[in-house]
Amino acid sequence: MRKSGKQIEDYPAGLPRFANLLGSAPAFVISRRFSVARSRLLLLKQDRVSILEARLNETDQNEERPLFLGCSRLDANTERANILHDLDNALADLDAFVLRSNQISSLPAAAKPIIDSLNNWVDGTGCLSRQQTAYLAFEDDLITTNSYNDYSFAFLQPKIEMLAIWLYQYFKKHPGTAGFRASRDKHVFIFPEDTLKRITRMVIAWLTVATIPVPILIVHALRTPGSRVAFTMVALTLLIVVGTCLSGARTTEIFIAGAT
Fold first, then answer.
1. Residue 10: closest CA among 185, 154, 176, 145
2. What are residue 31's phi and psi, to 5 degrees?
3. Cα 187 to the chain's mean position, in Å?
4. Which of the ends of the chain has fewer CB neighbours closer than 10 A, N or C?
5. What is the pLDDT of residues 55-87, one digit of tens each?
6. What's the pLDDT at 42?
7. What is the reported pLDDT for 40?
8. SS3 letters across the chain
9. What is the pLDDT of residues 127-175, one digit of tens each?
């Protein structure tokens, strides 16, 4: 249940209801990256800087008083001063745009199951215009603000959520019967973020036990050297694979983990 006591269907149909659906789960907050538009603007901003740079070089080459080039305090060339002022503004604009674009590009891509869920909701309710939800069609350009500090959470949590939804559907049980129903629509499954995090932590803990202590106990139980060596190789491979998937480790870190 939502803190306000209201369910999604209690809000007016259209943008108010859709906005409350998006706000009900962090994973639903997705947006277009507008990669093509950003590239177009980047080209224009770069070209502006290039033009001003060329004008500055031309002004320096045509300077009739070399003394002005040797000391900026004595430089009385107003044309050069104007060009430098415009160049400074253009570079500041370009730098800010590049840094802002870098922040946007670092946001994770929206998960396809989330996009499909939103599309299904939009198609099922029919309370929004096509223009308003057209951004959902650009799947390769969609990003989410729901970032994770831990790579293992980013890898596991969406999969655990999809598995939970499948289990609820398989057993014909709506999540609302478990006490956290945000919608009266039986096709809407929204799980609390805290619950998903707890389940994800339990899964990570289980994987840690399965890949580290358990193989050690099994090796001690084996009697022949050959079986111990073979199982050790299998366990080490499993440990590296699981660690790579859950940690997003770099290549050098993977080699170090394998060597130790």
1. 185
2. -150, 160
3. 26
4. C
5. 999 988 887 787 777 677 777 788 888 999 999
6. 97
7. 97
8. CCCCCCCHHHCCCCHHHHHHHHHCCHHHCEEECCHHHHHHHHHHHHHHHHHHHHHHHHHHHCCCCCHHHHCCCCCCCHHHHHHHHHHHHHHHHHHHHHHHHHHHHCCCECCHHHHHHHHHHHHHHCCCCCCCCHHHHCHHHEEECCCCCCHHHHHHHHHHHHHHHHHHHHCCCCHHHHCCCCCCCCCCCCCCHHHHHHHHHHHHHHHHHHHCHHHHHHHHHCCCHHHHHHHHHHHHHHHHHHHHHHHCCCHHHHHHHHHC
9. 899 999 999 999 999 998 876 656 666 667 777 777 776 776 666 555 4
Angle between helices 151-170 and 225-247 (to 10 degrees): 90
Angle, CA 109 vertex, CA 238 and CA 242 arms, to 5°:
5
Which pair of structure tokens corresponds to residue 65?
A: 């008083």
**pTM, rounded to two decimals:** 0.66
- Tracing tokens 């009697």 back to the chain, one arrives at 223
Q: The tokens of 228 are what?
A: 């111990």
Q: Rg of the chain over CA atoms, in angstroms?
A: 29
Token pair of 258 as six digits: 């394998």
